[in-house]
Write a structure and sequence with these properties.
Blueprint lengths: L5 E7 L13 E2 L2 E2 H10 L6 E6 L2 H10 L3 E3 L7 H9 L7 E4 L9 H11 L7 E7 L13 E4 L5 E5 L21 E10 H7 L6 H6 L3 H6 L4 E5 L10 H15 L1
Parallel strand pairs: 1-4, 1-6, 4-5, 7-11
Antiparallel strand pairs: 2-3, 6-10, 7-10, 8-9, 8-10
């Protein structure tokens, strides 16, 4: 086995509630998971990458494409846990970047930016990306996860609600009174942190908001936030699929 140091892992679950079999959906002649793999392959800082799946159809498809793929347990609760399961098979890996498997337009520079900021870290370190919110509609959208950050650029809390709350003003004017950040859902972990996360018990905050990172914070792990102007679009609905397909068509035609 090669001594990989920084590894990208792409969780690809078959059983999406809204789009079952999503990783295998075709977009302009290529599957969704193939397009994500092609983007990750362009990242310069990553030593190795693989797909982590729970389904034999996805496994065989990725294998046929020539990419590394690992079968993980079906019952894993999140992509982070799939990453931890894969990590156990690569003992020489020191840092892991968790790349969302439903973002075919992910910019390789985003992966490199996050990985570069983590490579020198040791111990229980987790990092993620944030982007400044510029559209007031995002504040009221529960699918846009908001985050408040302290002076050390560490996340204090994540929420589907608009935070911080601005008293005495309507929500559509809050951007005039403060800086708001949205969470860009890609994580990097030291191997020690990822293995520690796997052992944590779910905190009530996670159960309420359905945000796994709240468990990490509640147990004392710090999540360092790096601001970026880049953004990617995940595919969760048929409408998302149409939007991304149109964007890809414009880029490739």
């Amino acid at each position: 086995m090669s001594a990989y140091c920084t590894m990208a892992i792409i969780p690809a679950r078959y059983g999406s509630q809204r789009l079952p079999g999503k990783p295998l959906m075709m977009i302009k002649g290529k599957s969704l998971i193939q397009r994500v793999c092609e983007r990750v392959q362009q990242a310069k800082v990553i030593d190795h990458f693989c797909v982590a799946t729970d389904d034999i159809l996805i496994y065989n498809h990725v294998k046929k494409l020539g990419y590394d793929v690992v079968m993980t347990r079906y019952e894993q609760p999140s992509g982070t846990f799939r990453c931890a399961e894969v990590l156990s098979q690569f003992p020489m890996v020191t840092h892991v970047v968790n790349v969302q498997g439903d973002e075919p337009l992910i910019d390789p520079q985003m992966i490199d930016f996050l990985a570069t900021n983590m490579i020198e870290q040791t111990g229980l370190k987790v990092a993620t990306l944030v982007r400044r919110i510029e559209d007031a509609a995002d504040l009221s959208n529960p699918n846009v996860v908001k985050v408040v950050i302290n002076r050390n650029n560490e996340a204090m809390y994540f929420s589907r609600q608009a935070i911080p709350f601005v008293r005495d003003f309507p929500v559509d004017s809050w951007l005039e009174h403060g800086v708001y950040y949205k969470h860009v859902g890609m994580y990097a972990y030291t191997s020690q942190a990822l293995m520690a996360i796997e052992k944590l018990h779910i905190h009530p905050y996670e159960a309420l908001e359905k945000l796994e990172q709240l468990t990490w914070i509640a147990h004392g792990l710090s999540i360092e936030c790096f601001e970026t102007n880049m953004e990617s679009i995940g595919i969760d609905t048929e409408e998302d699929l149409k939007t991304v397909t149109s964007m890809i068509a414009e880029l490739e035609d």
